[in-house]
Amino acid sequence: MATAAAVLPSGSQELHVLAVDDSHVDRKVIEKLLKISSCKVTAVESGTRALQYLGLDGGKGSLGFNDLKVNLIMTDYSMPGMTGYELLKKIKQSSAFREIPVVIMSSENILTRIDRCLEEGAEEFLVKPVKLSDVKRLKDFIMRGETEENGGSRVNKRKLEDDGHPPLSSSSLSSSSSSASAPSSPSSPLSPPPSTSTVAPFACDLGTTELPTSPLHSSKRSKFCNSD
Amino acid sequence: MENRSLREQIAAMRQSFLDEEILDTQFIQLEELSDKDEPSIAEEVVTLYFRETTELLPTLEEDMKAIPIDFPKLDRILHRLKGNSASIGANKVRNEINNTMALLEEGNVEGAKAAFEQVRKEHETLKAKLETYFQALLTQLRLPSEAVALKLEIGAGMKDLASHQAYYSCPMINYI
């Protein structure tokens, strides 16, 4: 989206997404959707590989040596070996990575599965095939999440509902993954779980060199205010 | 029909895929992912699909003849096949897979085998049609006068023509 692109001051501020899917076809598609949405992508074929990449398997991983901090993890649910659900749990159990938003993708729209993932801390459950609009909305959401963490009430009012949470029930969200919006409120996508602290649960760890705190946020805030 | 430009024929092919419900709008979404970095991404994804499925199908056939049948394994493979088919918009193939899975769930193995034959048939049909389609696209893009028209044609449905120019440069179509 143009807004998000305008917000990022330079290429190094692009969201870095780790995509996990055992299907080569789906990996290629999600990779393209993310690239079109101006995200950096690392695509791996399994939960095990994902953990290796993050360095959660005991090894050093590929992070830490450069600015490729992961801002979002998108994982398929049904994978041989480690399922997306199991990967989600491992990430949420890790103190280093639990703040990274995790999105589950599945070709099956099973209510109990959706609930279970959201309860375990997934930000959203997307029904496959994933569309460009899903990715763009997700990216916008992640970017907004960072702004909210820093006095988001001054952000463009259109983006916030009365309760201060992002407009999860707005039509733009319900149009995509329509089946996922059918469940009742505890499992509605993108809504923060009740146990959350004041910090938005989807906020990325911003204490990195890649995403400086105050300068970026104040510029983002003003850009959101000025846009549309 | 004879004097129709290649461009028109391609558009007609695409439309017939949709009309006959061989492919659904997911295929169009795939085509719309083309840009100057990856101009033939739709074809690449489709190639990946057929490479994977061409391996899976004989395995499935064997597994369905096994005694006893490993139902969970069959279900897993069929599920994977279904997912990939949905990802490229292979509507009929996916429907036949659904039929097969439903029959297996009922324990109707003979019925499932017959349904699986339909899966293979639809898969073959799709493969042949898409080979023709991508070949036509390739040929069409080698005609200088047509190249511009094609960009406009495919771009008609896209919001931003400038960033999603669909010019295909992939030299070979090989699904094996």
TrEMBL record, chain A:
Pfam family, one: Response_reg
Annotated region described as Disordered, given as residue ranges: 148-228
GO biological process: one example: phosphorelay signal transduction system
Keyword Hydrolase in annotation: no
Biased composition (Low complexity): 166-188
Major site of localization recorded for this protein: nucleus
Key words, A-Z: Cytokinin signaling pathway, Nucleus, Phosphoprotein, Transcription, Transcription regulation, Two-component regulatory system
This protein's name: Two-component response regulator ARR6
Protein's organism: Theobroma cacao
Automatic annotation (TrEMBL), chain B:
UniProt signal peptide: none
InterPro entries xrefs: AHP1-5/YPD1 (IPR045871), HPT_dom_sf (IPR036641), Sig_transdc_His_kin_Hpt_dom (IPR008207)
Any one biological process term the GO annotation gives: cytokinin-activated signaling pathway
Residue numbers carrying Phosphohistidine: 79
Gene3D superfamilies per record: HPT domain
Location(s), subcellular: Cytoplasm, Cytosol; Nucleus
UniProt keyword Thylakoid, yes or no: no
GO molecular function: histidine phosphotransfer kinase activity; protein histidine kinase binding
Cellular component terms (Gene Ontology): cytoplasm; cytosol; nucleus
Primary subcellular site in the record, as a coarse category: cytoplasm
Keyword Phosphoprotein: yes
Entry domain remark: Histidine-containing phosphotransfer domain (HPt) contains an active histidine that mediates the phosphotransfer.
Entry function: Functions as a two-component phosphorelay mediators between cytokinin sensor histidine kinases and response regulators (B-type ARRs). Plays an important role in propagating cytokinin signal transduction.
Name of the molecule in the record: Histidine-containing phosphotransfer protein
Protein source organism: Theobroma cacao (Cacao)
